[in-house]
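As described in the Methods, two query proteins were run sequentially through the folding procedure within a single session, without resetting any intermediate state between them. The first query and its resulting structure tokens are shown here.
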Amino acid sequence: MKRVPAFLALFGLVACAGNQSVLNPAGDQARSLASLLGLATWISGIVYLLVLSFLGISLWRARRALSVADRPSVEPSDPAMRRTLILWSGLIVGALTILIVASFLVDRSLADARSREALQVRVTGHQWWWRLQYRDPATGTWIETANELHVPVGRTVRIELGSADVIHSFWVPNVAGKMDLIPGRINVIDITPRRTGWFRGQCAEFCGLQHAHMAFDVKVENQAEFQAWLAGQERGASAPGNAVLAQGAQVFAVKCAACHVVRGTGAGGRAGPDLTHVAARRSIAAGTLPFSRGGLQGWIAQPQAVKPGTLMPAVALAPSDADAVARYLESLR
């Protein structure tokens, strides 16, 4: 029994840190929302304690009155009761007013974060993966990737959100709040990260069978690292460096090019994610599996076993071809 308090204390701290927590803000917008959450928690906690205190006092007085034959009744017109009700009503109105004003100020601060120099990113939700496009500030062209968001620290990023099928919701709790992706509509969310590192984003609106496996990695990095990454993403895929990779590229062109893009080759399908630099990502299948050759082979051979309901079809390949394709994709950095 002595360990119970310590266990409860540790349990309460579980959600206070990590790469997917509103209690560990790493951006301006997340910090504003966390402060609002903290204020609402304090006010709600105080009101809760007052309610329990009044309830306890009432029960204590009622218990004492049980021993009195002729119990005095409290009429609604009693001055003490009237003062208590006025005080309690004033407390509730005051608490709600504080929350309303705080919410207004936070909303205004989120709107004020928008900058004309913001980096432009488009995010399109699909069942169940993410298409990401970056606007190159120098050329104005759009550079496409998937399932992994890179953003520079200290710079506002304006993200345009759209959906290709059903309603999704973009949420990176450490960096910003939620915003829905609605078919036929473009919503905008601005994020200003202040701490480098890896974080996790997630679809926060139920969108079908694999909603829980519609995640994405987020890397906040310094400006130089981000520019180097973006320049690398702009380049086409490197040519196969040996016979095995050439075999994999050939099989990919026959079996996979109808659904996937690999820039610099003939693969130009748009049904699935852009795979031009797939090996540079931390995960595959929208955060479902860590990136590895074995993960690629399993995903290609049995996608329904990994992610039931996915639109990715099983690709029947001979063992040598499956290994060659996995090695080829592993070379696309």
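Immediately afterward, the second query was submitted; its sequence and tokens are:
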Amino acid sequence: MKALVIHAPHDLRIEEQPVASPGPHEVAVRIAAGGICGSDLHYYHQGGFGAVRLKEPMILGHEIAGVVEAVGTAVGSLKPGDRVAVSPSRPCGGCRYCREAMFNHCLNMRFYGSAMPFPHVQGAFREVLVCDAVQAHRVADHVSLGEAACAEPLAVCLHAVNRAGGVAGRRVLVTGCGPIGALAALAARAGGAAEVVATDIAEAPIAMARRLGLDRAINTAAEPDGLKGYEAEKGTFDVLFEASGNSQALAGALAALRPGGIVVQVGTGGDFIIPISVVVAKELELRGTFRFHGEFADAVAMLGERRIDVRPLISATLPLDRAVEAFELASDRARAMKVQLAFG
């Protein structure tokens, strides 16, 4: 089979890899669609992020969907021909955090396409993936496999909403309207938020936010005082999803957050400078959010129910042999939101 392997920054190769046979509790999935994530772009451009660096060639990718090709002898929940979205999250089930149901913090996590451990966890941008049957979730017949591949980033955002304690009836601000910010806004709206406002410093993602029907989308580069009206009486918003990974975006949004408000930091971009006096005076809560676990099944269900429609976010789908072109396109915020690869 063919697989997409990163060797070093801007050294992306299509290579032949062996195809494994599924074990008793595994399935073989012929991958149809794979979404290029921000972490994939970090590996492509910088060879990693933060302290995480490539130390050996690694197959990229973790946003994937396809068709079951073969099942193990002990698998009764799936059959060949089933269309599935595959969760890249593979906790061990036995460590202290798994025993506490904090599966996303598993000490032995095997998350596809991750250079955090060494040897690295090989990713899912390959023609055939063998995975545990419990990772494969059937998708509704009317949901395309491109949409199904968006279940992973949507699960990230559903976990962020859960970290906020829910958003029903609350006013929500999202800073950063890339794929994760846009999905966080959609997740908030689907969660019953009373109002969802989004900001960004580029016009293309703002135009997408408007297309998605959010209550308001503000280009803070063109309109620096766009959030000013929300600062009255110590602030307006109950929840902030900070998805830009930019400390200036976080600092600029705190004035619009009401006392007792909750900040969920979704984006990562290195060390932040936080105006701690504002956090103290307003009794704000800063909460991190990391990956997901049970939310993946929720994401697949919501896509099937059309409670969240990700189709507007898919900017382009390119074949595997144009992977470098796809990665360059995905890196251009002015031209693309979510770029996917088509396999086979």
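The longest strand covers residues 26-35. We note this only descriptively and draw no conclusion about the first query from it.
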